[in-house]
Design a protein that fits this description.
The structure holds two protein chains of two kinds. Chain A has twelve helices and no strands. Chain A is mainly α. Chain A has a single domain (about 10-275), classed as Ferritin, core subunit, four-helix bundle (Ferritin, Up-down Bundle), CATH 1.20.1260. Chain B is α/β, with parallel strands linked by helices. Helix content of chain B is about 20%, strand content about 30%. In chain B, strand 3 (about 30-35) and strand 4 form a beta hairpin. Chain B is elongated, with a radius of gyration of 17 Å. The chains are: A mainly alpha, B alpha/beta. Chains A and B meet through helix 3 and helix 7 of A and loops of B.
């Protein structure tokens, strides 16, 4: 079984023969896929509304990459017999989604079509904190016992590098600008910290993930995130809270806000008009 | 050899967004499996969210099916090993330049910064305008010598 590198490594065939391993891998993949899927959608809503045209190019490119990563995870789910990738992306009701609530929240008041008063500070903070959390997870997944997930992590990491660099630049520049920029960034950070714990939570089956060596523990990932963020916070004279919250609930367990349902209705509208159509 | 014919056919399949460079020159072909009259081609996507993948797949099937004796062609995109920008061939690098795109830089500084020479005049006097460009795999730069904006293929490596 697997490769002889000391620790147990599992290929797709191994997972298909081992129900406990398969179920754990499926659960984790849903979290990873749904996180990327909804943040990519929220990013796409910014198209045409970003602060300047270069940012429109960059942000939409990042959203496209991220949607590509979601598609990759849905494909891995499909390989594990969890369903068709398009159906997994478009047809699952909100209660079955495993994304963190932080990522489903609307970009701000208004909608894409009507009076979009989106909050750029919130976009920068949410995307930066998410990109760093994703980086920490992807680094851990490179050593995952489940080989298809480890291989996907290597690929994703190369693209994520550019995303993280981008958001870190925005974050540092806006915070260090002082004045209204800093005030708004601090308000956005407060809002993001209120839900940030949801990114690190792995839900009710967390123990299964670590038991099968799929990914490091929630605690290890959170600690690593704080380590990576500390120098940035210190250089900008920002304070890191001792603890993060999940004020609106835990998305990993299917708890969500009305924002998610609205998003799913919008993004699935065309797909649902003819689910059998060929794309 | 049927294998040579397949490679030759794949030379005609270009990147839909850079129509002078073939998928072979971009280093996207990883494996050719031939079983009697069936061919399975394993390709490496450059960037995962690339919308051109489906078009490339269809064009590959069309090109390879035109070879006498081949009845069935399957194309599979795999991501292990990952595509890295050093897979672009020498010829590919030259053709990118002709198209006005600087080939992916071979050197990335420890800070993550990189430079690309102007594909038009060859000057090193260039500035980065936007790491992100019109497609996932390109960045936008500006040449201060000949005053042309240009694009460069992003370097990607497993060292990042």
């Amino acid at each position: 079984m697997g490769r002889e590198t000391g620790e147990m490594k599992y290929e797709l065939e191994d997972a298909l023969k081992n129900d406990a391993l398969r179920d754990a891998a499926v659960e984790l993949l849903f979290q990873l896929a749904d996180d990327d899927f909804i943040i990519a959608y929220r990013g796409s809503e910014w198209l045409g509304l970003a602060p300047h045209i270069e940012e429109d190019v960059a942000f939409s490119s990042i959203s496209q990459d991220t949607m590509g990563h979601a598609a990759m995870f849905y494909q891995l789910l499909s390989d594990l017999c969890a369903g068709d990738p398009d159906q997994l992306a478009h047809s699952r009701p909100a209660a079955e989604r495993k994304n963190a609530i932080l990522l489903e929240k609307v970009n701000g008041p208004g909608t894409y079509l009507t009076e979009p008063h989106y909050d750029w500070a919130f976009a920068v903070v949410r995307n930066y904190f998410y990109a760093q959390a994703k980086k920490v997870k992807i680094e851990s997944l490179k050593n995952s016992s489940y080989q298809p997930m480890a291989e996907a992590a290597v690929k994703i990491n190369m693209e994520l590098y550019y995303h993280l660099l981008h958001w870190k630049t925005w974050f540092s520049q806006l915070v260090s600008a002082g004045g209204e920029a800093r005030t708004r960034m601090e308000a956005a950070m407060e809002k993001v910290f209120d839900e940030l714990e949801g990114l690190f939570s792995m839900g009710s089956q967390a123990e299964e993930f670590t038991k099968h060596n799929l990914i490091d523990s929630e605690e290890a990932l959170r600690t690593k995130w704080m380590q990576m963020m500390s120098p940035v916070f210190e250089s900008l004279n920002l304070e890191m809270p001792d603890q993060f919250s999940m004020m609106s609930g835990n998305g990993r367990n299917g708890e969500h806000t009305a924002d998610l349902q609205t998003a799913l209705d919008t993004l699935g509208e065309v797909y649902k008009s003819d689910p059998a159509a060929s794309w | 050899m049927i294998r040579d014919k397949i490679i030759e056919a794949l030379q005609t399949v270009k990147d839909p967004e850079i129509d002078s460079v073939s998928i072979i020159e971009l280093g996207m072909l990883e494996e050719v499996e031939i079983t009697s009259n069936d061919v399975l081609l394993k390709l490496l996507p450059t960037f995962m969210g690339c919308p051109a993948l489906d078009i490339i797949k269809n064009n590959v099937v069309k090109a390879v099916l035109s070879i006498d004796g081949i009845e069935k062609v399957d194309v599979k995109f795999i991501f292990h090993p990952p595509w890295t920008s050093d897979r672009v061939t020498e010829l590919g690098r030259e053709k990118l330049k002709e198209f006005g795109i600087a080939p992916p830089p071979r050197h990335i500084a420890e800070t993550g910064e990189w430079q690309a020479d102007c594909p038009y005049c060859g000057s090193t006097y260039t500035t980065m305008e936007n790491l992100f460009g019109p497609t996932a795999c390109r960045s936008i730069l500006y040449c201060k010598s000949c005053k042309n904006p240009f694009e460069a293929m992003k370097p990607v490596s497993t060292m990042m």
